[in-house]
Design brief:
The complex is a heterodimer of chains A (about 130) and B (about 1250).
Chain A lengths: L1 H30 L5 H20 L3 H19 L19 H33 L1
Helix pairs in contact in A: 1-2, 1-4, 2-3
Chain B lengths: L1 H25 L2 H14 L7 H8 L3 H25 L1 H9 L2 H7 L2 H10 L1 H19 L4 H24 L8 H18 L4 H16 L6 H19 L2 H21 L2 H17 L5 H21 L3 H14 L2 H14 L3 H29 L6 H8 L1 H8 L3 H15 L5 H15 L4 H18 L9 H5 L1 H17 L8 E3 L21 H6 L6 E3 L4 E2 L2 H7 L4 E4 L10 E3 L18 E4 L2 E3 L6 E3 L6 E2 L4 E2 L6 H4 L2 E5 L13 E7 L2 H6 L1 H12 L10 E7 L3 E5 L8 E5 L15 E2 L4 H14 L10 H12 L4 E7 L34 H11 L2 E7 L7 H4 L1 H4 L5 E3 L9 H16 L3 E10 L3 E7 L3 E4 L2 E7 L5 E7 L8 E12 L4 E13 L2 H6 L3 H18 L2 H22 L9 E3 L5 H9 L12 H13 L2 H8 L2 E4 L9 E3 L2 E3 L4 E2 L11 E5 L3 E6 L5 H8 L20 H15 L6 E6 L5 H5 L13 H13 L1
The chains are: A mainly alpha (about 130), B alpha+beta (about 1250).
Amino acid sequence: MEAVVFLFSLLNCCLLIFLSAYFIIALSDLECDHINAKSCCSKLNNHTIVTVLMLISLYWFIFLLNLPVATWNIYRFIMVLSGNMGEFDPTEVHNGGQLKSHMKEAMIKLGFSLLCFFMYICSMILALIND
Amino acid sequence: ERENGHANHCKLQMHIPPCASGPAQSQMQAPSGYGVHHQNYMAPSGHYSQGPGKMTSLPLNNQCADYYSGPYSVPTQNMTPSTANQPGAQQMYGRDPPAPHMMASTPGPFQGAATSASHLHTSASQPYASFVNHYNSPSMYSANSSVASQGFPSTCGQYAVSAVSNAAYPSVSYPSLPAGDPYGQMFTSQNAPAGRPAKDSFAGHSTAVSHPSPLPPPPSQQQQSLSGYSPLSWSAPGLPSNPHSLIQNKMGSLTTANNNPTNTVADSPSCPGTQNVLPPKSSPVASTVLSRASPARLPPAARHPGEPAASASQPSEQVQSPGMQYGEYVNNQASSTPTPLSSTSDDEEEEEEDEEAGVDSSSTTSSASPVPNSYDALEGGCYPEMHSSASSPAPDRTLEPNSTPAQALAPAPAPAASQPSKVAKPFGYGYPTLQPGYQNTATPPHSGVHSSSPAYSGFQQYPQHYPGVNQLSSSLGGLSLQSSPQPESLRPVNLTQERNILPVTPVWAPVPNLNLELNKLNCSPDSFRCTLTSIPQTQALLNKAKLPLGLLLHPFRDLTQLPVITSNTIVRCRSCRTYINPFVSFIDQRRWKCNLCYRVNDVPEEFMYNPLTRSYGEPHKRPEVQNSTVEFIASSDYMLRPPQPAVYLFVLDVSHNAVEAGYLTILCQSLLENLDKLPGDSRTRIGFMTFDSTIHFYNLQEGLSQPQMLIVSDIDDVFLPTPDSLLVNLYESKELIKDLLNTLPNMFTNTRETHSALGPALQAAFKLMSPTGGRVSVFQTQLPSLGAGLLQSREDPNQRSSTKVVQHLGPATDFYKKLALDCSGQQTAVDLFLLSSQYSDLASLACMSKYSAGCIFYYPSFHSTHNPAQAEKLQKDLKRYLTRKIGFEAVMRIRCTKGLSMHTFHGNFFVRSTDLLSLANINPDAGFAVQLSIEESLTDTSLVCFQTALLYTSSKGERRIRVHTLCLPVVSSLADVYAGVDVQASVCLLANMAVDRSISSSLSDARDALVNAVVDSLSAYGSTVSSAQHSALIAPGSLKLFPLYVLALLKQKAFRTGTSTRLDDRVYAMCQIKSQPLVHLMKMIHPNLYRIDRLTDEGAIHVNDRVVPQPPLQKLSAEKLTREGAFLMDCGSVFYIWIGKGCDNNFIEDVLGYPNFASVPQKMTHLPELDTLSSERTRSFITWLRDSRPLSTVLHVVKDESPAKMEFFQHLIEDRTEAAFSYYEFLLHVQQQICK
């Protein structure tokens, strides 16, 4: 049972890693003027929700670990200004270093996901051995 | 023209040398620039690579001398080949020679110059010698090509070296001279440019002068000869061969200096002699030269007054001062090897002066005459003098004029003396790097002029225009500035003790602390301003100063003079794409160094030709390099699609509310009146849509007998009924359009429809416009209540005067923002006219214009009959709106020097990538602001530049690029940073930042931030001033108005609290802060108050035959309002005339047309045209104020006692209100905060 949970976590984690990497790629593209802010933001906004869901779906003892990140994501999601188009607003993404903070955030999330990934692997193997 | 072009080439060569010298001065330029030249030149021979190496090795004085000689010889070669081969070539050469002549111009001065700058002369003599040598050795031909090429590089190298040493410069002039000699006759016949003729006159004398510049030219000449002319020259008789030999000689000398094997080899045939000659530099060589050269030279001089003269002048000099002189010079050089250093400095100085003069002379034509809009015009107008002079003997005079200015600048005193001062300036200022290229290029001829004797004084006309003079004075000015340790801007001001902080005259933008020439070239502060005119070196220093750093732009401002440049290749930096501008440095004639990324770029061949002067070889005199604001006609490279036509769509609210307000009549009337004045060409298209709860389209297809109205009631899924006939050609369907405009105001008079489906109407408009792009003008009178984008009222009238939280400053929905982004993507801008009496949620509606680069007009409580002032304002605004310039499908990119970065933009646009603003439309009344940060330390540069490039499609379907470049100094001390604060720009930038803060955070946060900005900057300054008065509130002179302006901001509608302010008014004020250019914004923030009941002509200015009185500014305080007076307050879009109770009846009668105070009506919006002196003065003053702004202003006459006086009194920002500090209280508050 435990093993199944970890397997699921692992899969989730992989997804998160890819997502973070995708964020980073998209944002760095934006930084280098490769793509339009509008298209970039519309890409990124679609994925914000998924992140939240995935983090919440983790098992309970990992839940505490994930709680801060999940809360942050939910907070970000809720705090989007009424007139803005999602967390990444194309009209503001270039302002006041927002791009950099988004980038930093994506990097931290990537690191966190990687950490979780290895933790889940270990836990899963342990669980399998224990079985 | 072709011939001219050739001539230009020659000139270019000449100029190039100066450039080279310039680089040398700057040091940086020399190496890179030269390298480039080598490449270009060397292409033929392949030896060039060696050339650079030589350069490095050249440092020795002897070598320098050799080099000079080398260059000189080269020119001769070129000249000869060209003459022999082609007439055109000859002409060109002839011109070239003149240029040198310019340098050398006057013989008399020559001697003087020689005395002053012996080194120069010596160097000059050497070059001659080399020439002679060249001539002597006719056999050189075979070796020549390769050798010559090598020689050039070497020359370049020499330049770099020589830059330090004077000798290098002189050489330049020589080359031209030789050319002149051979071709002298040719030149004269042709057209020797006026300048040349002058040179001729100078010839003998100027040689010395010319020499400085000559060096650079030689390389270019060599290049030319190598590429195009070398073959000819080869074929040509002895003369051509001689030149080659000369080149070789030069090469050889160079090579000797450089140690290049190739050179030596090349030289071996013909060069040996030359080489020998060079090293010795001794009289023998000189004598040979004289003998040989003199004959050739003399004839040219005689033949060509101007051009030939230049060439001749050198020879003549030689002749005049026979072998003896040369020998002496040579000896001097040889012996003076140590001296060169000192001499070099002199030379440099001279060069700089020369450059200045040169620039002036070259630019005079352009600058003197209003800048025409096309090249052709310029060409026609600019150089007539030159030509005439060339044709006639006058040429000498023309040259002389140049000299005269210089003389005027640095009169009797030895040129050397003047030069040192100049040198001191640039260096002192730390800006030399930029200009050197410039100056050097231009200078050589001018220096000659300077040195020239009084004989030239006759040409006073020129002197005025000459930059040289200006530069001198500027240099002097700079010195004086430097000498005064504390300029006014740094004088500490005790704010709490200074009662009259506001100056009586309007506050002008501070002038950057640059030398005069740079300031003259700099962009007008009306178009481009920086909050700090001295940029701090590091972010740490900026943080210490606690001042905002940013730019305020007004890029599409209506200009009375704008150089428009048509050119196949628009010269831009290859790596950062910066447009060439006055602040780049020319390393030599063929290369320029980007002032933003420091990349070295090639100068394209086309750029060598100056259409203004019809001359070749003067890239530094092109209009692009002479003006910091220019407009290019862009080629198809700058188009993603064919330029769009002007397309105008009007989307009109015709609900009951709108009909009741009656704006349709005014709009249709304005449109009918201005239909022919709409900007556009024959493709202009126009369309109309109206909407209430349904959407109405109007089919105006040509051929219909009357307009056809098509109603679409499905607002959930809008479609276009007849997409092709809704936007019609203005001229083909003019009658139908007029029909429609005549009937439209009455079509809906009986409507009972109260709903407004604005969202769907906008979607339809977007669909209609998306194939072409263009401008959508939306007229809305109420809250949209149907379909997509419907809005609810969010304003709580009870919260209007709340001191706590002001909500709903941001949009309620992202519908309008998305729509705007879609529109922006299709090059469509949406302009919003909001004419409403109730809350209409401007915060949400404004998004449609904000992100599509539109503009917003708001007429609160508009009613065509009940509120005639607003109706009149709408009418006038519409006139301006419909007829003002417009640019379509525009993008604006702002670039800045490496190390700086932009991080936040303010204005109406969509930021498409980090530095690219997408502007579907651009109008002349739009302003922008940018915040900057310093990413890397700027310690290795003394200047930073900012460039905005606005690419747009004009209403005539032309793709154009308007480029503004601003150059500012970098400073390393906090005091300098404070000295350079532009307080108005800072306040405007802060206002923009505060608007963002209010929306993203809260209004109170924004207010706190504004106060903190004052507290932080003043306390930071206080801590740098070690004065004993710690209790006092001290501000630098440049910041003394800062607290006042910030207080004004806090009392501005956008940010005030505690005073009843309607949400829409507040949001509109915020929109204006974001999109108004600085000049208009400042009036909004801090109105101007004048007393007008006692206007006098004292200090009056004359505008268009009208006398405009200039009353002093009064501070905005009720204490200034005496009951006996009448005051005018200029709030930007509104004028108030306040009449005191005890106002003189004479004034009321003479100006207002009423017998006494009591009979003046409560609502008065016009001043009668009375035939009295005081009425005339008042009206001319008000008219003058009105003319200074694009949009109309409403005039309100406010009687003391009338209820409307509150409107007036709220602008008296120095007074206390129930909810806000007085100015003095605010100062105390700030002081308290600082002490905490």
